[in-house]
Amino acid sequence: MTGKKELAVAALRNGTVIDHIPSDVLFKAVRILGIESLGTAVTIGNNLESGKLGKKGIIKVADVEFDQATLDRIALLAPTAVVNTIRDYNVVEKHPVTLPDTITDIVRCANPKCITNNEPMATRFHVVSREPVTIRCHYCNHTVSGDKAQLH
Amino acid sequence: MNPNSLVSIADLTKDEILDLLKTAEYFERHPNSKILDGRVAATLFFEPSTRTRLSFETAVNRLGGRVIGFSDASTSSSSKGETLHDTIKMVSNYVDIIIMRHFLEGAARYASEVTDVPVVNAGDGANQHPSQTMLDLYSIYKTQGTLYDLTITMVGDLKYGRTVHSLIMAMQYFRPKFNFVACHELAMPDEYKRFCDEKGIPYTETTDFSPEVINSSDIIYMTRVQRERFTDIMEYERVKDLYNLHNSMLDNSKDNLRILHPLPRITEISYDVDANPKAYYFDQARNGLYARQAIICRALGIKPEEMTNE
Ligand SMILES: [Zn+2]
Fold first, then answer.
1. By C-alpha distance, which of B16, B14, B15 is closest to B6?
2. Are A49 and A34 in contact (CB under 8 A)?
3. CATH 3.10.20.30 fits A102-151, yes or no
4. C-alpha count within 13 angstroms, C-beta hemisphere, residue B71
5. Half-sphere exposure of residue B39, counting CA atoms within 13 Å on the CB side?
6. Are B111 and B88 in contact (CB under 8 A)?
7. Are residues B207 and B220 both part of a single domain?
8. Segment A59-115, tens digit of pLDDT
9. Is B177 annotated as catalytic?
């Protein structure tokens, strides 16, 4: 992050910065992270200039580090996102989100005739393409792109 | 989970496919081998399909096994709100193999995951119907003497026709060439064309059911063009007769050409084709019996003893 872009949002002492989120999925990402129910300081920036993405979004959350399952969900719709862990104003860890080969019980199948929408059971999707992200239902074989996936 | 379950044709390796074809061939010569003596099969048809059910039940009976089950969800416990999970668990206590058809897609996959009894998918909605694919393969193998290097022309509804999609998957091992003949609205989905590209399988795509296509074919696989598939009824009216096969269209076709169709047909193959020796769709249906006998034996891990001595 350059100093100029840093100014767009407030500095963070401890917490998580999720950067390089495509602007069009930023608010979906906000929902996945469960930010509405957090009591800590949250800064959301959108439509910021980004060389890679054109327009990007950024989310800064004070005093929270997200678990892997949550970050897997982010990977599904924003595979470009980068997670920074901040302690005492320093980035102590920085890594891109990674999409697992199989996604269990996160995505709802869009096919109304799929068994997963008619039985009390976990869904399962296989990643069939990473760029762009495309996932296939383990049960009914319907495919959907990552940014259109309906999340539980 | 039983490793011998058959839910999708993609579950089978090339060797397993060839093995099933050999076993089907054996049963064609010995249709009444009583090798299932004392075994019980369940045919659970949550969605009625008389044709498929009779074929499976005949297969079990000719092998000397017994059948329990239901032919319609309204007579089953699922009509009382029982989950598929619980129905499968209950039936698993009684039988050696479950043959099931369901209107929900993925039902057979899920069933195979909740029981140790082998599950054979007899159709799950618009998704998979592997025994149909095996009988298609057996029909091709039998009429051509090989599965290798054949030109297969698929005609009609290539968008929703699960039989043609599964056939592409199954033929990937045998250096096929495909011709896809359909109107724009029912064209082969990109997913399957991409599959062909990845596997280096050549194909042509036309809207015209032309003499060139017909005369280059070893197999013509006809499918039904259904009105309800169209968003635009005018489009249906315009194209519905373009993909019909008449006997005169076969005048310059190859001698080894055979016409396949999963049946039932409506108008897509005219009756004057039936008498042509190249018409194979009724024999194709009979091959379903042998293919299903082979699938049932594989699922139960039983091989006809005499097969090894032949
Ligand atoms: Zn599904």
1. B16
2. no
3. no
4. 10
5. 25
6. yes
7. yes
8. 999 999 998 888 888 998 899 999 999 999 999 999 999 999 999 888 999 999 999
9. no
The span from the CA of A138 to the CA of A116, in Å, is 10
Query: pTM value?
Result: 0.88
How far apart (Å, rounded) are the C-alpha atoms in residues A107 and A113? 15
Fold of the CATH domain A15-96: Alpha-Beta Plaits (3.30.70)
Nearest CA in chain A to B125: A113
Cβ partners under 8 Å of residue A110, min gap 6: A142, A144, A148, A150
Q: Are B241 and B160 in the same domain?
A: yes
The pair of three-digit structure tokens given for residue A45, joined into one six-digit string:
């920036």
SS3 call for A56: strand
Q: Do A140 and B106 touch (CB under 8 A)?
A: yes
CB atoms within 10 A of CB B301: 10
Nearest to B212 by CA among B241, B247, B248, B253: B253
Distance CA(A129)–CA(A101), nearest Å, equals 10
What chain A residue is nearest to B108 in terms of C-alpha separation? Answer: A139
